Amino acid sequence: MYLRKSIIALTGLFLCIFLIVHLSANSLLLLPESTARELYNSYSTLLRESILIKIIAYVLYASILLHAGYALLVTIANRRAKAQGYQVNHFRQNSSWTSQNMGLLGIMILLFIVVHLANFWARIKLGIGLEVGVDAQGNKDVYEVAYSLFQNVYYVLFYTVLAIPLGLHLHHGLKSAFKTLGFYHQKGLRLLARISLVYAAIMAIGFGVIPIVVFLK
Ligand code: HEM
Hints:
Low-confidence stretches: none
Strand content: under 5%
Bound molecules: protoporphyrin IX containing FE
Shape: elongated
Radius of gyration: 19 Å
Number of domains: 1
Helix content: over 70%
CATH class: Mainly Alpha
Structural class: mainly alpha
Distance between the termini: 49 Å
Number of strands: 0
CATH topology: 3 helical TM bundles of succinate and fumarate reductases
């Protein structure tokens, strides 16, 4: 069980780092179009063409699968133990709604990722669906893919609403990843709780607001 939880924690921390980089890149969409289109598209091309980034992308896909797969196994094992009358969580009364519903939040995020990969990744990397045009520099116009998607109010709602379960999941997940990996320092844990809150808020607000701003531009 400890090995499974450690894998969930380590892959989760890697995904947290990915989200910082991903949000920073997507913040370019908020700049004026004259600079944003070229910057966003050339950054996106650079990532697609770099061997190092290709390797990191495979680690990313593996991390998502391992994180979700082992989380599912641990949730099933906990449910079974509970059904058999074992007291799995002695602090149930004191634990938050989020900590009790990490599985549900995770499923919502997984649903988001599947739709999101179909919106962007499948079109841009796999060439599935509507063809992606090129910009004046000859780079794939990923900027246009984002802007045309967020003209649709249902997609804006989908991205913005699902940023809430993402934030809740990250808030609890970041704290518990460090605890799972053996971080028990009392003062450190209090600081970690604050860092997790700030991190989760930045991610939820950032990913939630970008589609709205693009829609309104
Ligand atoms: C405003 C919100 C977001 C925008 C505009 C956005 C944009 C993009 C774009 C353009 C790509 C394709 C990059 C390329 O192939 O050139 C991508 C890939 C991806 N995004 Fe997002 N993203 C957003 C939010 C998220 C969130 C919240 C998550 C995770 C919970 C996420 C996870 C991923 C993953 C896993 C990939 C595949 C990575 C790869 O390119 O190999 N994205 N996103």
